[in-house]
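Marked as duplicate of an earlier ticket. Keeping the data here for the record.
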Amino acid sequence: MSLQSRISALIGAIKSDLNALAGRVTLEGAGGGGGGGGGAVVSCAHTRNTDSTTDLNSNGSWTTAPLTGTVDFLDAAAFEVSGSGIKCLAAGLYELDASIYSLPANTSRALSISFAVNGTPFGARTVTNRAQNSAAYVSGILGELVTLSQNDIVTVVTTKNHGYGGITMFAGRCRLSVKK
């Protein structure tokens, strides 16, 4: 790859990152049909937790992870923060992404993680790794494509997968991202 190609790729990546921070990304050449022009707009919302005390290791019931303490970016025309989730203001196809990074009170603890719409868990689930020694962090990531209705609220929920005892989030390291 030539130096010019590398520079062009880097400039493109920087432009994309700057647009994402504003909450909207324009995809050149997408949409409009007929080979060009216009572009499609992807609306984004991205939040992170500030909470480091909520116990996510509930025994048999789903706990909503408080992931909206910090709003990194939000396209206010498409999304609102609602409680511990993101409200989608229009119906359509959405991409959901989340990650949980947490610290078990002691070893052999793991969480099941799922998305919920309007409080009801659905779709794909993942499980965090199990801590094998004290002070070891555990993590899990989750992604899903889903068709949502207007004003649906997306949250992340967790429940006990293995072991007993508290599991709290590492502040600022857990996130919820929604793209339309």
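See parent ticket for discussion. The first strand starts at residue 24 and ends at 27.
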